[in-house]
């Protein structure tokens, strides 16, 4: 695989860093500590290392067993390895590869009550010696410990490092700069844990990729400038933000003469601009750009597919409504939220219709019109019939229920018995307790051992 584009080039760059890490003396664990905008690249890298035709110098196994508990996690990883070997033995491998069936079997009697990682490491050592008896090639196992907190991660890997690990065995782990769950582990074991920072400059990579597109197509210069605009916004470069926004709008306005779909891009640019102004707390300027987004969105009626058109209208009005609320222009905010609710109802986006109605109710409360607020909350509540339970549980719908439970006039329109019948299948028999806890911050947990 050659680095013909910026993404491939960075993948190879990361592969080189990985090779250096796994060949560093005394290293047993390689921790890939990535920035938030590098997560997708790391996901791809983990899959890339499994490919048969890549150039890395180690055998790689990827384990993605979700973390359960300290006592069982090691055994569950061994079970995952066993399943992977079955899949390998059943796979269709190209004839050019020297394929052989793996006859190795795990030993589930190797565990220890005092060391939660022992069953995994002893089986991994056994597998590595089976695969590479001469120990001249590294055997790497990447463990993506989904669901563990920093205390659990430290404890389990502390036990792993207390177990003798074969010299040609390497364990890979991934960690985000946002959470850094392996900080304590790396500080406790500075020689055994190697922290690899990708430093992929993904913003530059995306710009380079865009510039490699066919310049004869109108979408190419637009995409190039749009990416530069988003990077300028993120990096707080006011002059560049203005410059690239103007270029994007110029291209969109030109193409709009023959293709009305470019209206959606104009909405996008103005949405980026008003979001940028929010970051500077320039709310009057944000309202101006949000208004421009509304104007462009309204022009899409009759020109674009209704589903897209009404979504754009809803999005633009909710954005401007939020700015009006910040400036305490509550009546204008309510007007925007009402139009957004109507738009989402037109395109049958039930989730955003529900959210818009919730915002209407909230804004009515700000205007001390509690009777009208309840009507909007009830309309939002009634949409539970059109949304899946998991969507309802993971949306702002519980806030709607909270508002209704706290209303003295709600029973005129919606009985508690009816709510119990509606909500028990979604949130459980004790749905009121669940709703009461919704939105509350969890109690802090100590990370000390």
Describe the overall structure.
With 449 residues, the chain is α/β, with parallel strands linked by helices. The chain has 3 domains: 195 residues, Rossmann fold (3-Layer(aba) Sandwich); 104 residues, Serine Threonine Protein Phosphatase 5, Tetratricopeptide repeat (Alpha Horseshoe), CATH 1.25.40; 91 residues, no CATH class. The chain is 57% helix and 7% strand. A 5-stranded parallel sheet has the order 2-3-4-1-5, with helices on both faces. Helix 5 links the parallel strand 3 and strand 4. Helix 8 runs antiparallel to helix 9, helix 11 packs antiparallel against helix 12 and helix 12 packs antiparallel against helix 13. The longest helix is centred in the C-terminal third of the chain and has 21 residues. The relative contact order is 0.07. The C terminus is likely disordered.
């Amino acid at each position: 695989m050659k680095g013909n584009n910026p993404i491939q080039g960075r993948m190879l760059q990361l592969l080189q860093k990985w090779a250096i890490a796994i060949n560093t003396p005394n290293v047993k664990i390689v921790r890939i500590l990535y920035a938030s905008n590098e997560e997708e690249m790391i996901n791809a890298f983990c899959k890339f290392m499994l490919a048969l035709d890549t150039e890395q110098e180690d055998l790689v196994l990827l384990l993605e067993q979700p973390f359960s508990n300290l006592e069982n996690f090691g055994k569950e990883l061994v079970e995952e390895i066993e399943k992977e070997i079955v899949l390998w033995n059943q796979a269709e491998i190209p004839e050019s590869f020297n394929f052989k069936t793996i006859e190795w079997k795990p030993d589930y009697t190797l565990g220890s009550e005092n060391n939660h990682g022992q069953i995994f490491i002893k089986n991994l050592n056994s597998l590595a010696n089976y695969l590479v008896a001469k120990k001249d090639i590294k055997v790497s196992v990447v463990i993506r410990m989904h669901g563990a907190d920093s205390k659990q991660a430290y404890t389990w890997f502390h036990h792993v490092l207390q177990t003798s690990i074969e010299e040609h065995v390497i364990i890979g782990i991934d960690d985000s700069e946002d959470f850094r769950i392996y900080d304590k582990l790396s500080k406790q074991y500075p020689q055994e844990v190697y922290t690899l920072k990708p430093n992929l400059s993904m913003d530059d990579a995306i710009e380079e990729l865009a510039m490699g597109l066919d310049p004869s197509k109108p979408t190419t210069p637009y995409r190039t400038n749009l990416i530069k605009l988003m990077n300028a916004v993120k990096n707080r470069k006011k002059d560049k933000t203005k410059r690239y926004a103007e270029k994007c709008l110029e291209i969109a306005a030109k193409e709009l003469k023959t293709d009305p779909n470019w209206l959606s891009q104009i909405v996008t640019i103005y949405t980026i601009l008003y979001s940028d102004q929010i970051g500077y707390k320039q709310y009057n300027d944000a309202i101006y750009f949000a208004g421009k987004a509304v104007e462009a969105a309204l022009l899409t009626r009759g020109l674009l597919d209704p589903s897209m058109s009404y979504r754009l209208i809803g999005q633009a009005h909710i954005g401007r409504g939020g700015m009006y609320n910040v400036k305490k222009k509550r009546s204008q905010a309510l007007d925007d939220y009402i139009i957004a609710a109507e738009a989402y109802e037109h395109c049958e986006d039930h989730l955003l219709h529900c959210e818009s109605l919730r915002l209407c109710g909230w804004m009515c409360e700000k205007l001390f019109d509690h009777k009208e607020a309840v009507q909007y909350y009830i309309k939002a509540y009634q949409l539970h019939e059109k949304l899946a339970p998991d969507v309802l549980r993971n949306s702002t719908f519980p806030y709607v229920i909270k508002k209704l439970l706290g209303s003295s006039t709600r029973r005129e329109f919606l009985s508690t018995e009816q709510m119990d019948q509606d909500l028990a299948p979604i949130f459980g028999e004790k749905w009121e307790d669940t709703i009461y806890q919704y939105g509350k911050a969890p109690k802090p947990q100590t990370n000390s051992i």
